[in-house]
């Protein structure tokens, strides 16, 4: 095995870059879950899958990225054998769940756009698919408890026993596991997702051409659905592209067994892969106006609460009022009459308008409240 190490300047750069990825990924995915939970218009079957993706990335941010960040900064593993196995297990399991959910999303979009009347994925089916995806992913990642352990000096989390085992009987199952992971996580889903999105965009393009030829008779795909498909396809494509270098290095390691875990190549590949967790919420916000609106509402919620406390005199809120937005009307309204500015209460202003401009036969009843639903 060749002795390779990461240059100091690269360690500093990757540590800063990894810290930014960690913060953006964690806060972004928590924001995605919060926005979908609070907004009824975003609680669709597709966004249930998006919530599952966000939970996978949050798990990665909690149990994988911090340990990789410390290992990159110190250039050794200091968390013991169990955390070596557990973090790698969750790394494989969360990635497998992400790929499985992305595959489910592509199939869902395929039937929703091309065969909208023949098949529909309901919420109950969506939940079952998510549970099944996580179950298969946990089973797929469980061999990591066997193939990962600390090195002889307990300062490195070795990959698949390839450099510590002298027995070929252990190297062969480890190599088979690497090829199996690559085939199940990258190859098969990548082919299926590519075929489904190719078919979807061919269908959309065909309808677009028909729209130009027969403007009145063609049924076009709504622009919102097209934009949503573009967003989901970009999420899928970026996930596969960012994780591809990591799996290529795994295959190279199986073949030549000459890469060090903390070499520059491995360090760059690992953090390129982890950056996919930060990219997904960014894409949601860029492509989806509802997500942007929800993020603005959450970011401004504290300011709105303070504003409402200063402007409301509500002693009891009904169930209907709690579910709907409540606005305010200022009690003092300025108006100009004969060049002079005067103030009138809300009631007086509305009463004057009702009697004078609208010619209503009766004045408004006295009402002390100044809120409306």
Automatic annotation (TrEMBL):
SUPFAM superfamilies for this protein: Family A G protein-coupled receptor-like
Alphabetical UniProt keywords: Cell membrane, Membrane, Receptor, Transmembrane, Transmembrane helix
TM stretches of this protein: 6-36, 48-69, 89-108, 129-148, 174-197, 232-252, 264-287
GO BP terms in the entry: cellular response to hormone stimulus
Listed GO MF terms: G protein-coupled receptor activity; peptide binding
Listed PROSITE patterns: G_PROTEIN_RECEP_F1_2
GO cellular component: plasma membrane
One Pfam family per UniProt: 7tm_1
Gene3D superfamilies linked: Rhodopsin 7-helix transmembrane proteins (1.20.1070.10)
The protein's name: Putative G-protein coupled receptor
Membrane topology: Multi-pass membrane protein
Domain G-protein coupled receptors family 1 profile: 28-284
Subcellular location: Cell membrane
Keyword Signal: no
